[in-house]
UniProtKB/TrEMBL annotation:
This is GyrI-like small molecule binding domain-containing protein. InterPro entries: Reg_factor_effector_dom_sf. One of its GO terms (biological process) is protein-DNA covalent cross-linking repair. It comes from Aplanochytrium stocchinoi. One of its GO terms (cellular component) is nucleus. PANTHER family: TESTIS-EXPRESSED PROTEIN 264 (PTHR15949).
Length: 238
């Protein structure tokens, strides 16, 4: 007897998106005249509908309806190169682009990059221009030539230990280097749930971005040695 197939649950986000698109298309493109009959008002109306659809699409991809869920796990082994920055967190897209450009001119340019970052200050408690953070690239298998190139550009190399207990969550990543909306959504939602789960955290969370998600790890060192390794790995600027 064949095993019963599991009933697939509906994806409510996709259904919601489909409904919005359908309503806008019906409202905006009903009774469409021939091209040669279009008036200036028609052109503006159809362009307006297209802009609204594009905006909804960007917001959807940027995680507007995503509610991060946390879990307890352990940190992965991370070797990375990073540079230190200060200023508004939503300007970190420029730092992403800088890291990408260095990697693109390196011997390892064909490798899919994974971004690495850590944000040290509470943007509510600290002035925007004094916020401190680091941004770089994960380089577990970078060649010595690539590491040397990054160091010449002002990047530091670090190694974070594997297997340290942590609080973890993830959030959709959608072109953060050119899409500050994605960064704003992530910063305002992810860190709230991380530090709510671990309000007495002694270390900053770090991020690893792949092609689809940003993965957030808030370490919970179980001994002084683990805490020391992380503190040395991406210590805050003095």
């Amino acid at each position: 007897m064949a095993a019963a197939t599991e009933k697939k649950k509906p994806n409510w986000t996709d259904l919601k998106w489909t409904f919005i698109v359908t309503v806008l298309l019906v409202a905006g493109f009903k009774d469409v005249p021939y091209v040669w009959e279009l008036t200036a008002y028609d052109v503006v109306k159809y362009l307006g509908v297209a802009v609204v659809l594009l905006l909804f699409w960007v917001l959807e991809k940027s995680g507007i309806w995503v509610k991060p869920e946390v879990e307890r796990t352990t940190t992965p082994a991370v070797k990375a190169v990073f540079k230190r920055y200060s200023g508004r967190y939503d300007n970190s897209g420029n730092a992403y682009q800088e890291a990408f450009s260095v990697l693109a001119s390196s011997p390892d340019k064909s490798k899919a990059p994974k971004l690495f970052a850590a944000y040290f200050d509470d943007p509510i408690a600290v002035e925007a221009e004094k916020l401190q953070y680091i941004v770089g690239v994960v380089g577990n298998d970078f060649s010595p030539e690539t590491l040397s190139l990054f160091e010449k550009k002002g990047y530091e190399a670090t190694s974070l230990p594997e297997g340290v207990p942590c609080v973890y969550t993830k959030f959709p990543m959608f072109h953060p280097s050119i899409n500050p909306i994605n960064i704003i959504f992530a910063v305002n939602r992810v860190y709230k749930v991380l530090y709510k789960e671990l309000p007495d955290a002694k270390l900053a969370a770090f991020e690893i971005c792949d092609s689809d998600y940003t993965h957030y790890y808030l370490p919970i060192p179980s001994n002084k040695e683990q805490e020391k390794l992380f503190a040395l790995g991406y210590k805050k600027m003095e």
